[in-house]
Amino acid sequence: SRDLTGYATYLYGEAKSGKTTLASQAGTALIMAFERGYNALPGVFAVDVTSWGDVRSLLRELKKPEVKAKFQSVVFDTIDIAGTLCEKYICAQNGVDKIGEIPYGGGWTLMKKEFEEVLRTVTQLGYAVFLISHSKDKVFKRQDGTEYNQIVPSCPTTFNEIAKNLVDIYAYSEKYMDEQGNSKVRLVLRSKDNSIDCGCRFKYIDPVIDMSYKALVDALNRAIDKEAAETNGQYVTDERNVLSVAKTLDYDILLNDFNSLASQLMAKDSAAYGPKITFIVDKYLGRGKKVSDSTPAQVELLNQI
Question: How far is residue 219's CA from residue 209's CA, in Å, rounded to a whole number?
Answer without folding.
Answer: 8
